[in-house]
Design brief:
- With about 190 residues, this protein is mostly beta strands.
- It contains 1 helix and 13 strands.
- The strands form 4 sheets. Strands 9-6-12-13 form a 4-stranded mixed beta sheet, with no helix packed on it.
- A hairpin with a 2-residue loop joins β7 and β8.
- It is elongated.
- The chain starts with about 25 loop residues before the first strand and ends in a 12-residue tail after the last strand.
């Protein structure tokens, strides 16, 4: 969560509140509870800033989500997830042909062994920012995707089977997987 109070002099009215605030990261423990992981993720995350927006996406195409935070009157912060991706994953870019081009509203079901995950292509999900348009599926230790079922906004349903993991794919409505590569990118901090 990107944080920062809206009043630059809020301390005059509420002594315990600050204009610049640290960001927060919560982890879903899989049992219906979220744990605050903020203190264990490095000093850049803890720096108090007047943050206004946070956008998540796999900026370096390595299978884990990174975050770009815009800060009011300060430089943005790029929080690269460099913790090592020990689990398998799949990212899906949807391209509508009969439906809208961005496939907003498409519903996707990914089945990998005993794991069944759902997501929907959404638009405009964050305040003053936009997330990566690809759908990101974490697969844990599972080494293949048995099926991807897509319900496109225009009504078409299609199923793809036996998909390789640890890659980003593009699925074009009515045409299946299209050849498009997402090369890994090296991002070097200044």
């Amino acid at each position: 969560m990107a944080n920062g109070h809206i009043l630059d002099n809020v301390e005059l009215y509420h002594a315990e509140t600050r204009y610049a605030e640290p960001k927060l990261v919560y982890r879903n423990n899989g049992r219906g509870l979220f744990e605050n992981m903020s203190d264990s993720l490095g000093p850049d995350l803890a720096l108090p800033r007047v943050s206004r927006a946070a956008a998540a996406g796999d900026l370096d195409n390595d299978g884990d989500l990174d975050i770009l935070v815009s800060n009011n009157g300060q430089q943005p912060q790029l929080l690269l997830n460099e913790g090592g991706n020990a689990n398998h994953w799949l990212e899906i870019q949807l391209v509508g042909t009969r439906s809208n081009r961005d496939s907003v509203g498409a519903r996707v079901k990914v089945t990998s062994g005993d794991l069944v995950s759902y997501d929907q292509r959404k638009g405009g999900r964050s305040y003053q920012s936009a997330h990566d348009g690809r759908l990101h599926f974490g697969l844990g230790s599972r080494t293949k995707v048995d099926s991807i079922e897509i319900r496109w906004p225009g009504g078409l349903s299609e199923t793809l089977r036996n998909i390789e993991v640890d890659r980003a794919i593009t699925i074009k409505e009515g045409s299946g997987i299209t050849p498009r590569t997402y090369p890994r990118v090296t991002i070097k901090p200044r």
